[in-house]
C-alpha cells in the first residue's frame, strides 16, 4: 500500500558534484533537488500532482500518479499531507489523517497496526527525487525556453548502480541522461525525462515524470469526494500475541485493511 518507488528513498540522495561541460549557465543539480523539496513547493502552491510513466522497447510499460496537498492546516506552519496515489485499478488515499484503499470496487479503511503515526505513513510521498536521479551528475547543457529553462545531465553508471538499476536494463557501460524542464522563476519541475545512452551510441527513453501544480486544494476536491466520513463509526479491536489490545475506530460499512509494517503477521477474526 505504500509508495511504489519507496526503495528509491534510501538510494537516490547520493552526493552530487556537478561540472558544467555543456552550453548555457551552470545549474548544479543539488540546487534543483533542494528547490523541489515538497516543503518548498508548498510555500507557493497548495497541491501538486506527479504522473510517472515507464517505457520499455519504446512503448508505455507502467504508469502511476501521486497527488499531494497540504490537508488540514492547524497553523501557518503545521499541516498534514493529503495523498492520492493511483495505478492499475488501485487507489490509495491518505486524507484528513485517515488511510483508505479502493480496489475491485471495494473501499478499505487501513488500520496502522504497527503503531506508526499518519505522518510517518504519508511523509515519504513528499520525496521528489527518483531512483534514476542517483549518481554523480555532469551537466550536458542548459538553455532558456519561452517560459522557464531546460537543463540536462548525464551520469556514468557504476557497478553498484548497475546492480540497483538492473530492472531498467541499465549496465555499467551505460550513461543515464536526465533532462529537466523547469518552471520560470521557481525552478519547480514541469517535466523530467530519463534516457539510457548505451555504449554503442544508441539511446532509449525509459521514464518520464510530469507535474501539475494547484493554487488551492479545492481544485482537486473531487479526488476525495467519494471517501467515507467518520460520522458513523465502528470499533475494531486487535488482540496481539501476549494479550495486548488496541482499539481503532473506522467508518461504518467499509472493509478493513491492516498494515503491520515490516512484520509478517497473520490476523484472525473472533467469532
Task: Reconstruct the topology from this structure.
Blueprint: E1 20-23, H1 29-35, H2 38-41, E2 47-56, E3 59-69, E4 73-75, E5 78-79, E6 82-87, E7 90-95, E8 98-103, E9 106-112, H3 118-122, E10 137-144, E11 149-156, H4 159-164, E12 175-182, E13 189-197, E14 203-214, E15 233-239, E16 245-251, E17 255-259
Parallel strand pairs: 1-10, 9-17
Antiparallel strand pairs: 2-3, 2-14, 3-6, 4-5, 6-7, 7-8, 8-9, 10-11, 11-12, 12-13, 13-14, 15-16
Describe it.
The protein has 271 residues and is mainly β. 8% of the residues lie in helices and 44% in strands. A 13-stranded mixed sheet has the order 1-10-11-12-13-14-2-3-6-7-8-9-17, with no helix packed on it. Strands 4-5 form a two-stranded antiparallel ribbon. Strand 15 (233-239) and strand 16 form a beta hairpin. The protein is globular.
